[in-house]
């Protein structure tokens, strides 16, 4: 048994409050594509998935591949337009920075597993000065996205940490399914896109309502002695 511990964070809805930004971009994309308005309650269900898969779930069933790719382009353009506006902000959730800093000070290795592209992640992390805390950044650029375990498996391989030494922290059922498939601890947070019920259905070992609660759970985390994560 080593002394290594790895905390892998989702970004949107877990570290960063991007709920309004993502919904506005989706609304703009659907309007440009002639699909009309789309409500937040539909949009929130697909956040975390790779973009084309996410939009494929929201678009009409008979939507062609070419039209879907155009819808993806409209969404990306809408996001860029928002970022260019004065006063644009994707704020950290209360307690997020303090938790990240505390874990880093305590010797945890930190990672990210996100449905964002690396370019978008770099913009957000650059704005908030977060890059220096994280040893592994897993995005959808170089492989399959959530809920497949690829990103968590790659994060563990990059840091040399085993599943029983790893926790995945996220706000969606996709994060929990990914963690379970990778054999890691699955810690849900209730302040993002999915409901507590949806997160539980994804297989969360625990669900936390604040960063204070999450921090306490991480402080008490000890790698499983038998090389597995308890159910």
Number of domains: 2
Q: Please, what is the CATH homologous superfamily of the largest domain?
A: HAD superfamily/HAD-like
The largest sheet is:
6 strands, parallel
Topology-level CATH name of the largest domain: Rossmann fold
Mean pLDDT across the residues is: 94
Give unreliable regions as ranges.
Answer: 226-231
Q: How many helical stretches?
A: 10
Order of helix and strand elements from N to C terminus: EHHHHHEHEHEHEHEH
State the end-to-end CA separation. Answer: 20 Å
What is the strand content? 5-15%
The level-1 CATH class of the largest domain: Alpha Beta
Radius of gyration computed on alpha carbons: 17 Å
| Order of adjacent strands in the largest pleated sheet | 3-2-1-4-5-6
Describe the global form: globular
Structure characteristics:
10 helices; 2 domains; six-stranded parallel beta sheet; globular; DNA polymerase, domain 1; 44% helix; alpha/beta; 231 residues; Rossmann fold; disordered C terminus
């Amino acid at each position: 048994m080593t002394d290594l511990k790895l905390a892998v964070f989702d970004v949107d809805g877990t570290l960063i409050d991007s709920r309004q930004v993502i919904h506005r971009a989706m609304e703009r994309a659907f309007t440009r594509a002639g699909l009309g308005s789309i409500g937040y309650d539909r949009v929130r269900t697909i956040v975390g998935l790779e973009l084309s898969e996410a939009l494929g779930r929201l678009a009409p069933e008979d939507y062609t591949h070419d039209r879907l790719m155009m819808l993806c382009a409209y969404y990306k353009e809408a996001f860029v337009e928002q970022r260019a506006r004065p006063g644009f902000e994707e704020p950290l959730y209360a307690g997020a920075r303090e938790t990240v800093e505390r874990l880093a000070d305590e010797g945890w290795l930190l990672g990210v597993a996100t449905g964002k592209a690396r370019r978008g992640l770099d913009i957000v992390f650059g704005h908030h000065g977060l890059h220096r805390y994280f040893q592994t950044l897993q995005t959808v650029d170089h492989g399959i996205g959530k809920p497949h375990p690829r990103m968590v498996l790659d994060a563990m391989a990059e840091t040399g940490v085993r599943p029983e030494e790893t926790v995945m922290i996220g706000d969606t059922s996709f994060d929990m399914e990914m963690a379970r498939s990778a054999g890691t601890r699955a810690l849900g947070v209730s302040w993002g896109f999915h409901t507590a019920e949806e997160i539980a259905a994804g297989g969360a070992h625990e669900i936390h309502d604040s960063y204070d609660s999450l921090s306490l759970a991480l402080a008490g985390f000890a790698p499983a002695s038998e090389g597995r994560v308890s159910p």
